[in-house]
Amino acid sequence: MKKTSKTIVRMLGAFLMCCAFAVNVGCFDGGVTGGLAKMGEASKLQTSTESTIQSTDKIVESTSVKKDSTTKEESTKITTEKPTTVLPKTEAPTEATTTAPPTEPPTPKPTEPPKPKETLSQKNALSSAKSYISIMAFSYEGLIHQLEFEQYPHEDAVYGADNCGADWFAEAAESAKSYMDIMPMSREELIHQLEFEGYTPEQAEYGAQSVGY
Predict the structure, then answer these.
(1) What share of the chain is helix, strand, coil (3-state, %, to 5)?
(2) pLDDT(181) > 70
(3) Are 194 and 208 in contact (CB under 8 A)?
(4) How many helices (H) and strands (E) in the chain?
(5) Residue 136: which of 193, 182, 168, 175 has the closest Cα?
(6) CA-CA distance, 173 to 51, in Å (whole number)?
(7) Which end of the chain has the smaller Cβ count within 10 Å, N or C?
(8) What span, in angstroms and rounded, lies between the C-alpha atoms of 174 and 208?
(9) What angle is formed at CA 111 by the lines to CA 105 and CA 116, rounded to 5 degrees?
(10) Long-range contact list for 64-69, CB < 8 A, 24+ apart?
């Protein structure tokens, strides 16, 4: 574009110079005075033509500079602008369906076997055992022997002794006190007498300690 504008200006300048040359030639036909006037006019015309050419060159150069700057700005905008990238849609992960563990059936509690019904003989043996314990001190073996003496079967006598609620250590202490109230005894003799009545060695020892031995 710049080269084409300069070519047009140069052609225009050549055309004006040709016109000035034609005017100069006419000076010889009109005399010296007319020729000089015409030469002055031609000189002015040439000067104005040159100034016009220069101003035209400046306009062309400024126009090309503006176009170049505009082109650079556009290219800068194109390079600086970041292309917008469209991200693919990400679907949220679906939660895995959890299956509840199979419930185990409740374990049945063991049921205690029903207690055998108390027989009449056992009931009477128990009642007799409580009566003897309330009257005087007995060992476990001595109480069973006393119930058997009253003709209770051995099983019923054991049942009475087991369920009468007696504290056999306390019974040994009470028997030791009764012996010591009747007659004085040594420690070894008292323990021997308590064991003879059916108390265990531990119960006999406890009875002797309870009276001061």
Answers:
(1) 70, 0, 30
(2) yes
(3) yes
(4) 8, 0
(5) 175
(6) 153
(7) N
(8) 10
(9) 165
(10) 64/1, 64/2, 67/1
